[in-house]
Amino acid sequence: MEVLVTGGAGYIGSHVVRELMKTPYDIVVIDNLQKGHREAVLAGEFYRCDLADRQKLDEIFSDHDIGAVIHLAADSLVGESMENPQKYYQNNLTAGLNLLEIMLEHNVMKMVFSSTAAVYGSPDNIPIEESDTAKPASPYGRSKLFYEEILADFDNAYGLGFVSLRYFNACGADYEAGIGEDHDPETHLIPLVLKTALRQRDKLKIFGTDYKTRDGTCIRDYIHVSDLARAHILALEKLEEEGESSIYNLGSGDGFSVKEVIEAAREVTGREIEAEPAERRPGDPPVLIASSEKIRKELGWEREYKDLKNIIETAWRWHSSNPEGYGESKTGKEI
Ligand code: UDP
């Protein structure tokens, strides 16, 4: 069976492709390379294609015998979505709907969808369970929740099977395979901490030190990107067995504060990492920790990386051996 990965040149997508290489599935990747890197795609047939391009999508679906889609292509920054919601609704919803339409036309009825902890907003219960109310606090979170609801409607009406995976904080790298995190601009905590350790940045800003948490800084649930990626394979297998559509959290069940992450990175790198208190970042909830019991019980998902320092170590190996990320050729070529 051919599996189409949208957004397969991105950070998480490239790790999903890497995990798919360990399975018998054939891989087709599309990415518009706005954020993604061609070099990050280690296998499969690659198309530079935007989901807004219905004609090209249609051609790709005609040329391949696609059995399922893993849909990751999206914009994914909370802050940017507050300033430019139009972009988020356009790319995540309108373009995402094109994909669904083409899937229906070609009778491709299985999707694994990349969702987010941002659908929960500031949750009432910690750890968060899938049955807890989703009250997204940003256009980004809303775009993902709306898409999940669209999937549920398509399931009811057309029998489209889906598994939605709500990611918590993806981090780390499959550095042995030569892939890792390279965003421009980088906004995520762990890569920024490591870039500070590498002296590519002066100081890390700690966004808020007066939260009601154990040390005043925000607590997040950090999960290794390869563990996250493996969950997509389990989700595909579930869909192949004609299992029911479902939504799963993907996190570790553990939370670490910003200060704890910085301290762990100091230990891993053996370097000084200067950090200073700064204003809170709008839209940041104080604590986000997932219960991932549901996916453990139902799909047998287990984490391989259980120790934060271990996870940071994998990211450190990637960043220290690729200080410029994927480098100059990151925009890639039309293929
Ligand atoms: N953070 C920070 N300084 C930075 C970047 C992030 O203090 O330069 C904090 C951020 O406020 C949040 C946590 O680190 O509490 C994780 O942020 P990230 O952007 O990595 O992921 P998010 O939780 O927003 O998806």
UniProtKB/TrEMBL annotation:
Catalytic activity: UDP-alpha-D-glucose = UDP-alpha-D-galactose
Involved pathway(s): Carbohydrate metabolism; galactose metabolism
Keyword NAD: yes
Protein name: UDP-glucose 4-epimerase
Organism, scientific name: Halarsenatibacter silvermanii
Record EC number: 5.1.3.2
One biological process term in Gene Ontology: galactose catabolic process via UDP-galactose, Leloir pathway
A Pfam family hit: Epimerase
Domain NAD-dependent epimerase/dehydratase: residue ranges: 3-251
